[in-house]
Amino acid sequence: MLQSLLNAWRLPDLRKKLLFTALIIAIYRLGCYIPVPGVDTEAIAEMFGSGGVFDFYNLFAGGGLQNVAIFAMGIMPYITASIIMQLLTMAIPRLEQLMKEGDIGQKKVNQYTRYLAVFLAFIQAIGFVFLFRSYGAFPEGLKPLNFYLIVLTLTVGTALVMWMGELITQRGIGNGISLMIFASIVSRLPGGLGKLFTLNPGYWVLMGIIAVVVVAAIIYIVEGQRRIPIQYAKRVVGRRVYGGQSTYLPLRINMAGVIPVIFASSVLLFPVTLAEMTPWGWAKWLARNLGPGSWWYLVAEVILIILFTYFYTAVQFNPIDQADNLKKYGGFIPGIRPGRATATYLDHVLTRITLPGALFLAAIVLLPTGLIRGLNMPFYFGGTSLLIVVGVALDTMKQMEAQLLMRHYEGFLK
């Protein structure tokens, strides 16, 4: 990874992209420490530290929620809006048609997603203000002007984070939204290591071994492929013979990457957070018992991870289109008839290899929680965070390698 960064740094255009990405992330991290006006952050300190929903939300916000900063809600409203729009795309024919219209339709859907994200951020901002008031965060009372100012600041802060993520995707090294989440999680790493070093040195060794094994397993599964052999028929054009080559179609075991984990966490956090904001006792009880760390939450997260893995894989890879393209260019799978039979075969193989990938994602999410409870470790260590960090790092490095290879840089060909 370090060698890849050094190779990218030697190219002027990639160096500019790296510097631009670092600048945007630095601005984002700065915004996580600039508090909104009129809120006593010490009064809401009891919301955090118990491993509940707000600790989990605070992790994705990079500590911004605990600081009641202008970027307190982070990128989570945008992720929730993206999930809703993808589900609506499958349910509403007009949206599905827009998605098939190329870049113009995709831009239109993205625009709807931004509007929905701002609306969700506005609703969440109102909920957070009333929640802060219940903890006595306004010593002089919640005045109307102060209320509107805080809600507007939090909503605009989410819009700015969304815009900065898109800037990284367009002018930086890509994966803008994922990199924002990556930066938020990594920023909490020093605090976690500080807690680890206060324990018995034996725990250091044990957690180091577990971390290495889990990271190696994540990389192995994420990079794992099922290679489908492809044979191209020979074609004679004039005096030249084309085709006749053998290649393969790589089907990744975990084609969806870490997106299902992010989606599952976002879907579960949104209703639990809203329930915690309500003044009703039964809703707060449900939020505490269904929040992160509870068995009900873990079971729901496993189910959603499996569902989102299949959903996102289906969005990324269409067996029918792939079979039609193979038939169009004279390619076929040995022993399988071109056309519908090829599409059925690809769908069967993809369904079989996606299941272990989805179960692996769910296992990584559950494993650290089980180890913590079994070993009674007094600090929070989430498999979700580890999956996101490793997955985003791998995807980002692949994008950098692809950009270097397009420039005929030989450093990655060794």
Q: How much of the residues is beta strand, in percent?
A: 5-15%
Q: Please state the average pLDDT score.
A: 80
Q: How big is the Rg?
A: 24 Å
- Helix content percent band: 55-70%
Shape: globular
Q: Widest sheet: strand order?
A: 4-1-5
Alpha-beta content class:
mainly alpha
Distance between the termini: 14 Å
| Alpha plus pi helix count | 16
Q: Could you state the order of secondary-structure elements as H and E? A: HHHHHHHHHHEEEEHHHHEHH
The counted number of beta strands is 5
Biggest sheet details: 3 strands, antiparallel
Give the low-confidence spans: 409-414
Give the helix/strand layout.
Layout: H1 2-9, H2 12-31, H3 53-60, H4 76-91, H5 93-99, H6 103-134, H7 144-171, H8 176-187, H9 189-196, H10 201-223, E1 225-232, E2 235-237, E3 240-242, E4 246-252, H11 259-277, H12 281-289, H13 295-316, H14 319-328, E5 331-332, H15 340-375, H16 383-406
Antiparallel strand pairs: 1-4, 1-5, 2-3
Helix pairs in contact: 1-16, 2-7, 3-11, 4-5, 4-6, 4-11, 5-6, 6-7, 7-8, 8-16, 10-15, 10-16, 11-12, 11-13, 13-15, 14-15
Structure report:
- The chain has 16 helices and 5 strands.
- It has 414 residues and is mostly helical.
- The strands form 2 sheets. A 3-stranded antiparallel beta sheet has the order 4-1-5, with helices on both faces. It has a two-stranded antiparallel ribbon with strand order 2-3.
- A hairpin with a 2-residue loop joins strand 2 (235-237) and strand 3 (240-242).
- Helix 2 runs antiparallel to helix 7 and helix 3 (53-60) crosses helix 11 (259-277).
- The chain is globular and about 85 Å long.
- The two termini are 14 Å apart.
- Residues 409-414 have low confidence and may be disordered.
